[in-house]
Amino acid sequence: MKNILRITLLILFFGLPLLMAAGAPTETAVAEPTGVSTSRRINVPFTTAVVPDIPPAERAILWFGEVGPTTQSYADVRIIYNQEKLHVVFHITDRYMYYDPTPTAAEMPNWDAATLYLDLDGNSGSAPDGNSYQFIGQLDALNANPQDQRPDYDFAYMGDGAAWVESGLDFETAVGTQTTTGLNNQEDDAGWNITFRIPWSSLGLAGPPAEGTIWGLGLTMHDEDNTAHEDRNWPEGLSSTASSSWGEMRFGLPSYTPPSGVTGSSSLTIRDGENGVSVPDGHVGGSTNCGGFPPLWNTWGNFNYAGDFQINIQNQWNLGDWGCFSKYYVTFPLDGLPAGQAIIDANLMMYHFGNSLPSEAQPSLIQIFTVDEDWNESTLVWNNAPLATENVARTWVNPLPLGGAGVFVTWDLSGAVAEAYANGQPLRLAIYSADSARHSGKYFSASETFVPDRRPTLEINYGSAYGFTASTNTPLQTAVPGDSAQFVIDVSPTGGFGTAVTFQANSVPTGVSINIPAGGITPPGSKTITITHDNPSQTSGGLYSVPITMSGDGIERTVTLYLLVNGSQIFLPITTR
After folding, report:
1. What are the Carbohydrate-binding module family domain coordinates in residue numbering (predicted)?
2. Last residue of a domain, which of 464, 485, 513?
3. Is residue 260 part of a domain?
4. Dihedral angle at the C-alpha atoms of 248, 251, 254, 260, nearest 10 degrees?
5. What span, in angstroms and rounded, lies between the C-alpha atoms of 108 and 102?
6. In 3-state terms, the chain is what percent helix, strand and coil (to 5)?
7. What is the pLDDT of residues 103-129, one digit of tens each?
8. Cβ contacts of 58 within 8 Å, gap of 6 or more
9. CA dist., res. 417 & res. 348, Å (int)
10. What's the pTM value of the predicted model, to 2 decimals?
11. d(Cα 499, Cα 524) in Å, to the nearest integer?
12. Scanning 252, 290, 306, 577, which has its CA 20 to 30 A from the CA of 241?
C-alpha cells in the first residue's frame, strides 16, 4: 500500500538563501591557525648530505597520475635540498617507454619526458617573468650518455614577462630505467626515473632560500606510448605560463605552536567504534601481496580493499616492484571537539604488527599528508584516491623481527588537527613513504581490526582559546517596506578574554541603513543592532545581508544578519512513499 503524506512547507522569497541563513551556525572568535590552503603544498626538508649520499627515504614526496594499460602513467616525485642544489626526482610508472633518438627542444615534450616549473615569487603570476624557470628532461637511450652530461636531452627556460625563452642555465639531469625489453617498443616495462639537480647559482641565489620561503612549483609528466600521447600535471589545473595555477613548495618542514592564553586542558580520543564514532579507512595499491600475479596493468590501479582489517604502507626506489606500492587513507571526525577551543597537541597512534620479509626489512620514514576531499571506502582505489594537499608529519618506523611483538607508532599532528578544526572539517589523511629499499612494507591494524585498542587512534589535548564567541538567535528577520528590525548579538569570553569588543558594518547594501549603538562591550554582553529598509514604496521583494564585524585584542569575527523585505509564501505539497 502506498501512503501519501501531504506536507505543507513555507517557502519565502529568495528561499534558498533564506534557509541557508536561518541555519547559520554560531560563529566563534579564537586565536587559531589560518584556513585551508588554496593550493597544494609540499614542505621540503634540508639535508647536509651530498650526491650520491642523499638518503632517498628522507625526501618529501608527492604523487599524481594513474596506473593503467596504455596512456595512463603515474609519478612519485621526491624533493629535497642541500647547501648546493635543489634535487627533484620523478619516479614514473609506465608500461611503454619511448624516447627521441634525435631530440630537439621543441619536440622534447612529445616523448617520455618530465618538466619542472619554479617561480621564486610564489604561485601568483599570470605570465613567466625573470624569476620564473622551466626545466625539461627526456628519457634517452640506455647508457648512451653520462648521467650528468646529456646533450640535447635537457633544456632550461626563463620568463621574459610574457613567454618562455630558452636559456643556457647550468643544471643536471640523470635518468634510470626499469626494463628488460629495451625502449621504443610495445613490450611491457616497469617505468623510469629522472633526477633534476639545480644549483642555487643558476637561480640567481648565493645559497638555499631561508626556511619558510615559499616558491611556486609545477610539474608535468609527458607520456608517449607510440599509439597515444598524454600529459599529466601537478597540480591538476596547471597552466605552463601562469604560476597562479601551480602549487607551493615551502622550504623546511612544518611545526606547530599552540596559541597563547589557553586555559584549562581536556582530552578527546577518537577511534572507530568508541562512543559511536566512525573512522573510515582503506589502503590502495598492492596491499600485502603486491597486487597478486602479473600482469597487473589492466587491473592493479582499480583494486579495492574495503573491509580489510590490516593495511600496508610501502614504496621503493626501483620501479621493478611497483606492484607492491601501497598508500593508506583515514578520516577522523572532529565534531566531538567543543566550539571555541584551542588545540594544545594532537597525536595519531597506529599499531604496527609486522613488515615485508623481516630478515631484510629496513626502517621506513613514513609520512602523513592532509587531503581536501571525501572518499568512499567501498570505491577507493589507487587511481581515484585523493591527491595530497600538504605533507604535515613524518616518523621513523623500525622493522619488527619475525614473531616480534607489535608496537604503537606515533605521529605529531597538532598543526593538522588545529587547521582542520579551525575550518570546521574532519581530519582527512593519506599515509605513504619515500622509501628506497625492497621489502619496505610496514603492516598496521585498520579500523576494522577485532581489537579496538589497536585501531588507528587520534588523541587530542585542547583548552579554552583566548577569544570570544559571537552569536545571534535570529540571524534572519522580515519587514515590510520602510520598516526596521532589531537583531541581538551575544558575545561571550573564552580563555580569560577580558578586552572590549567593537562592532562595525563595513559593507551595507544599498536599500537599507544600519544603526549600531556607540561604544564597545566587554564580554559577556550583547549589542542590539537595528537594520532599516529605506524605501516605503518598494513593491518588489528583497533579501539584504549585512556582515557585522566584531574586533577585540587583535581577534576578529563576522556574523551576517539578513533582512527580508516583502517576503511571500507558497504552499507546496510533497509526496512521500
Report:
1. 302-448
2. 464
3. no
4. -100
5. 10
6. 10, 40, 50
7. 999 999 999 999 999 999 999 999 999
8. 45, 47, 80, 365, 434
9. 10
10. 0.82
11. 10
12. 252
Q: Are residues 214 and 283 in the same domain?
A: no
pLDDT at 385 over 80: yes
Q: Which sign does the torsion angle of CA 228, 234, 235, 240 carry?
A: negative
Q: Are residues 70 and 201 in the same domain?
A: yes
Encoded amino acid at 453, one letter = D
DSSP, collapsed to helix, strand or coil, labels residue 435 as coil
Q: Are strands 191-199 and 172-178 parallel, antiparallel or unpaired?
A: antiparallel
pLDDT value, residue 72: 84
> What's the grid cell of residue 28?
566563534
Task: Specify the DSSP element, H or E, that contains 421.
Answer: helix 414-422
SS3 144: coil
Contact 370, 428 (CB under 8 A): yes
- Please count the structural domains in the chain: 3
Q: What is the rounded distance in angstroms from the CA atom of residue 432 to the CA atom of residue 328?
A: 7
Do 182 and 240 lie in one domain? The reply is: yes
Three-state SS for 242? strand
Find the helix or strand (DSSP H, E) in which 417 lies.
Answer: helix 414-422
Whole-angstrom Cα distance, residue 397 to residue 501? 49
Q: Which of 542, 377, 544, 353 is nearest to 454 (CA)?
A: 353
In a domain, 90, yes or no: yes
Alpha-helix runs per DSSP H in 225-312: none
Instruction: Give the range of the structural domain holding residue 484, as residue numbers without chain letter.
Output: 9-31+466-571
- Maximum Cα–Cα distance across the chain: 86
- Return the DSSP state at 270: E
Q: Are 504 and 433 within one domain?
A: no
Which of 502, 500, 471, 512 has the alpha carbon at shortest distance from 488? 471
Shared domain for 138 and 236, answered yes or no, is yes
d(CA 167, CA 163): 13
User: Which residue is it, cell 578586552?
Assistant: 499
Residue 19, C-beta contacts closer than 8 angstroms, at least 6 positions apart: none
Task: Look at residue 312 in the predicted model and tell me its pLDDT.
Answer: 97
**Cell numbers at 147, concatenated:** 648521467
The string of pLDDT tens digits covering residues 149-192 is 677 899 999 999 999 999 999 999 999 999 988 999 999 999 99
Cell matching residue 278: 566512525
